[in-house]
């Protein structure tokens, strides 16, 4: 038998030696396909599947509804942070679920006595202004008209009743119409919205022309069985967050992420068990964990996915402050073994600042990668841009264990009592990242890079990548510090990186 270069992942992960992503390289395989043929679809949890292995972190400078909407449209998923009131987080989830659908089964409606100002308020809150008007202002009331942007755009009197400006000559579809039939009717009518009504004229649902365009422009969009965008939301391990879970489920959340810096606790296990007993149709991701024993305990509690990482984030100081954690590559590989045996996907969280790091996390068994730094600084991330003294455009980015974030509620990730919150031990920092532009430009760049990486490995997709990991045909090699320097940019007086914000150090 011909000797193979490199070592298997099992041999790479020597006991007692923590391995980070930069400590190893993946040896190339044989290419007999185009990179565009690479399949990046993956299981995020037991039941939730994504077209891209990208998940945005539940951080208050990374994921609110704008990030979650655009990332879901592009094929990934966002997880809404919980540095907010319960209703505020639930509203963020509702914004995602309402944004792009086939049939909008719970449309926002108004009654005839509502005002033009009410329509503008809905437009400001949800981003649309095509509002059905029902006789009693209820979503299932008898349809009497519709107000569109065309009806109110130049209306000077915002106190005017919508009954005086609404369109009453309506094109509607009958209840029971298929989505394709509804789409065809919308195209022929050249209307922006198509109300679906029953035999008594009561509103059943709504179809939006904008949604048709979204279906065309975003063919990989992550959607549930009702054609609504998928979204996750984070909760703490505290009993006081059980009403938060209830509100999130009512809002339509697809995945609940139990968010704890150290997830192997009786508090998290109790929370996972309660969620699965109370809402069995909602998938739960538990974490964060880094060892096989921790992973087993959360799986036994009912976790449908695991979040892996303790201290590897770019703005996290846990390992230095607490002296507890694990090198991320080792953590991903070890926990992925346990997850695979139980049919539970693992989500690599932290330590990713390049496409290569993403590829390595997936090659070690992760089904998806959760990222904060990579998505911070994009247009869709919360916050305003500002300029430093050299004219560089920046956005603020902070760890959820930074003093600033803990003051806003981030200390719920840490097992402190209410009386302890006045004494805060930071495990993260606040900073700024460069402008990465819109996700519409940035994510395709990440996708192409990741596909080309898998092509270089000689695998057609994540399923084949994980099979190569298991049968040990995927080969690895340790890198010395000199090899790491050699593999990066070196020997130049200066250079310009075109990596859309991925700055070489």
Helices and strands, with pairings:
Elements: H1 9-12, E1 24-26, E2 42-43, E3 49-50, E4 54-56, H2 65-74, E5 77-80, H3 86-99, H4 116-126, E6 131-134, E7 143-147, H5 149-152, E8 173-174, H6 179-189, E9 193-197, E10 203-208, H7 209-217, E11 232-235, H8 242-251, E12 255-258, H9 266-278, E13 283-289, H10 292-301, E14 305-308, H11 318-322, H12 328-342, E15 346-349, H13 355-363, E16 368-371, E17 386-387, E18 393-398, H14 403-407, E19 430-434, H15 439-457, H16 462-470, E20 476-478, H17 481-486
Parallel strand pairs: 4-5, 4-16, 5-11, 8-9, 11-12, 12-13, 13-14, 14-15, 15-16
Antiparallel strand pairs: 1-20, 2-3, 6-7, 9-10, 17-18, 18-19
Residue share in β-strands = 15-25%
> How many structural units, i.e. domains?
2
CATH architecture of the largest domain: Alpha-Beta Barrel
Which strand order do you get reading across the main beta sheet?
4-5-11-12-13-14-15-16
Largest beta-sheet details: 8 strands, parallel, barrel
CATH first level of the largest domain: Alpha Beta
Oligomer: single chain
What fraction, in percent, of the residue positions are helical?
Answer: 25-40%
Quickly count the helices: 17
CA-atom Rg in angstroms: 25 Å
**Number of separate strands:** 20
CATH topology (level 3) name of the largest domain? TIM Barrel
* The named CATH superfamily of the largest domain: Aldolase class I
Give the integer mean of the pLDDT values: 88
Counting helices, strands and paired strands, the structural category is: alpha/beta
């Amino acid at each position: 038998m011909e000797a193979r270069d490199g070592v298997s992942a099992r041999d790479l992960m020597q006991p007692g030696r923590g391995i980070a992503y930069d400590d190893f390289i993946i040896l190339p395989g044989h290419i007999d396909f185009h990179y565009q043929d690479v399949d990046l679809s993956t299981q995020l949890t037991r039941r939730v599947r994504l077209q891209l292995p990208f998940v945005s972190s539940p951080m208050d400078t990374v994921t609110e509804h704008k990030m979650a909407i655009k990332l879901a449209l592009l094929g990934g998923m966002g997880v809404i942070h919980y540095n907010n009131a319960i209703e505020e987080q639930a509203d963020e989830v509702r914004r995602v679920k309402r944004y792009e659908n086939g049939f909008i089964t719970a449309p926002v409606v108004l009654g005839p006595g509502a005002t033009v100002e009410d329509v503008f308020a809905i437009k400001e809150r949800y981003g649309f202004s095509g509002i059905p008007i029902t006789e009693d202002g209820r979503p299932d009331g008898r349809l009497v008209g519709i107000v569109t942007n065309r009806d109110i755009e130049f209306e000077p009197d915002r106190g005017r009743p919508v009954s005086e400006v609404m369109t009453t000559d309506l094109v509607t579809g009958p209840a029971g119409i298929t989505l394709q039939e509804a789409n065809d009717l919308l195209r022929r009518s050249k209307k922006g919205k198509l109300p679906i009504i029953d035999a008594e004229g009561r509103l059943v649902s709504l179809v939006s022309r904008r949604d048709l365009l979204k279906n065309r422009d975003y063919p990989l969009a992550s959607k549930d069985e009702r054609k609504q965008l998928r979204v996750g939301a984070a909760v703490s391990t505290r009993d006081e967050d059980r009403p938060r879970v209830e509100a999130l489920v009512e809002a339509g959340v697809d995945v609940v992420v139990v968010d704890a810096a150290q997830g192997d606790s009786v508090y998290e296990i109790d929370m996972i068990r309660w969620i699965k007993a109370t809402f069995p149709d909602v998938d739960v991701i538990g974490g964060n964990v880094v060892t096989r024993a921790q992973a087993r305990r959360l799986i036994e509690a009912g976790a449908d996915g695991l979040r892996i990482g303790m201290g590897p984030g770019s703005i996290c100081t846990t390992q230095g402050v607490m002296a507890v954690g694990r090198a991320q590559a080792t953590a991903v590989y070890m926990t992925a073994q346990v997850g695979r045996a139980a049919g539970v996907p693992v989500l690599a969280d932290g330590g990713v600042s390049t496409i290569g790091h993403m590829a390595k996390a997936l090659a070690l068994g992760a089904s998806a990668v959760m990222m904060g730094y990579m998505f911070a600084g994009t247009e869709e991330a919360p916050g305003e841009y500002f300029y430093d003294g050299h004219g560089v455009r920046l956005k603020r980015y902070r760890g959820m264990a930074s003093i600033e974030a803990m003051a806003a509620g981030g200390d719920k990730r840490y097992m402190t009592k209410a009386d302890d919150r006045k004494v805060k031990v930071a495990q993260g920092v606040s900073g700024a990242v460069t402008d990465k532009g819109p996700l519409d430009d940035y994510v395709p760049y990440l996708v192409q890079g990741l596909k080309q990486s898998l092509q270089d490995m000689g695998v057609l997709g994540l399923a084949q990548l994980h099979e190569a990991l298991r049968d040990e045909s995927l080969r690895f090699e340790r890198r010395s510090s000199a090899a790491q320097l050699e593999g990066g940019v070196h020997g130049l007086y200066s250079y310009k990186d075109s990596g859309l914000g991925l700055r070489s150090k």
